[in-house]
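We emphasize that the prediction below concerns an isolated chain of 346 residues; any contacts that depend on oligomerization or on bound cofactors are therefore not represented. The input was used exactly as deposited, without trimming of termini.
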Amino acid sequence: MGFKAFVGLVSHSIAVILDAVNNLSDALSSVVTIIGAKLGAKQPDKKHPLGYGRIEYISTMIVAALVLYAGITSLVESIKKIIHPEAADYSTVSIVIISVAIVVKFLLGLYVKKQGKKVNSGALSASGSDALFDAIISASVLASAIIFLIWGVSLEAYVGVIISGFIIKAGIEMMIETLNDIIGKREDAETTKQLKQIICEEENVLGAYDVTLFNYGPDKNYGSVHIELPDTMSVDDVDRITRKIQVNVFHKTGIILTGVGVYSFNTSNDEAAQMRNSVQKAVLSHDWALQMHGFYADTVNKTIRFDVVVSFDVDRKEAMQTLYSEITAMYPDYAITIVPDVDAAD
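Result of the prediction step, given as a token string:
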């Protein structure tokens, strides 16, 4: 990186200088990321009972801002060079240095990416891909230098604009991804599927719903879920099952289930089963009603309760009014309770 910057300054090559800037931003990103990881690994305390994991998101935002600033500054300088061109002066030493950098980055990228796949580390794989991408950028700088030496055509500033564009793109993508983590994004479909599968493997669990994950930093996930159990189970049975589920989920996924809610399922009432089928048919006749669960009908006290997962494409208030109107018309003697659930997981 230092050699590249020196070569760029001596040879008046804006492309080489920006390649060095790109390397500097990568190195700075690594330093800030390491610091953030160290701080984020601090043990929970009284002031922060869920730990310091989200510090890593703050450090990533800082890195994204630095990368974005470097990209914009580089773009401005490249445009200036296009308007006021300055001939580059490449030497054999500069060509050799750039060539060696390409080979080193390429080999390093392949090695790191291979190690990332070996240990199933997304961060390592991403770093390997980034190194390979840097090798491509350096190769474009070398190509422009060779073209200048052979044909006398200077592509320096234009290559600089391209490099600046990639740097800006990387900064924006990093910032958007981190903002999504901070704001809270849709649960990963595979994680949700795995979680439900683990839970439903437990005997007597008839279904798992309303999976919600709370992220407090990389690999620091807490969550809650509702499970459906037969209405014949005792509190002792429910307690045993929910605790077993929490242990299994943690051991297999690392997710800490802080809450396991329970839906009661009618098992011995044929009338309730018929009501369930009728209500489900009416609810799911609407495209915006994605799922119905947690249904329970008390035919003695005349009550019906259930949850409905509502799409974001419809006004929730109007959707609930429609359902209440339709179900009440079907069972006018019953008190209806409908809980609208958010479509938070795939």
